[in-house]
Amino acid sequence: MERKEDIELLFARIDDLCERAERGETAVSVFLSPRELHFARKRLEERRAHFLVFGGMADAERNKLYILPDYMEGLTSVSELEAYGQGLDISVLKVSGSGFSKLSHRDFMGSLLGLGIERSVVGDIVVTETGREAIVFCGSEIVRFLLEAWNKVGNDKVRVENIVLPEDFVPVRRFASVMDTVASPRADGVVAALCSLSRDKARELVENEFVEVDYETVVRPDKTLIAPCLVTVRGYGKFKILSVSEQTKKGRYRLIAQKYL
């Protein structure tokens, strides 16, 4: 599912950041998706670069990379980085609707893109359970523009405020439980169970490179999946495999997973 050209372009951007760090400055990336971060880490490890990852909150899905110069290689947290006077270039916005409409992540994202905003300057968008407001992490360089220009999400008017994230803030993650049994931990059998498909259809998806495990494309239906891992099936969604090892009395494997909603 990942295109070779996209990975090569990502590697080129990472190499450029590393060269800046080698010249003695902290090099900060744009927000990276989990998949981009996966490949970026590989490149950084190849180059033996020192780096930190942060997206504005603990367990953020979209994060920035902070590639450190040699004299900062002992730093282990962004708070230590800030102590050096390095800005994190991440701001937090609270976007509140009128209360008459329930807004979704897609609504907030769509309205941002409609303003001409690049996806890479926006991190996580955490929508409250009521759907009346969202916490949005973004690059500090676009805050002023958003405060002035962002006044509508869907058909609802919104108010945008620049805030300090509360220390007790915990994002709401929504999942649907998936429980089944499979003949073995093979990729095609697990995908069939996750997506309620026939084994033949699941095998076809794997062979046509529609399936990723931990952001790497899988092409062999007989690949053994080892939990925990993330499985993404194009057109069907993203799943977190929690267990696929315990066997039943009939010799089948119990599959316990969560589907991202």
> What would the average pLDDT be, to the nearest integer?
94
Query: Uncertain runs with pLDDT below 50, 5 residues or more?
Result: none
- What Rg is obtained from the alpha carbons, in whole angstroms? 21 Å
Taking the sheet with the most strands, its summary is: 6 strands, antiparallel
Q: Give helix and strand order, one letter per element, not per position.
A: HEHEEHEHEEHEEEEHHEEEEE
Gap from first CA to last CA:
21 Å
Helical amount among residues, as a percent range? 25-40%
User: What general form does the structure show?
Assistant: globular
Class by alpha and beta content: alpha+beta
> How is the largest sheet built, in terms of strand order?
10-15-14-13-11-12
How many helix segments?
A: 7
Instruction: Please give the oligomerization state of what you see.
Output: single chain
Tally of DSSP β-strands: 15
| Strand percent estimate | 25-35%
Task: Describe this protein with a few key phrases.
single chain; 261 residues; alpha+beta; four-stranded antiparallel β-sheet; globular
What would a concise description of this structure say?
The protein is α+β, with helices and mostly antiparallel strands and 261 residues long.
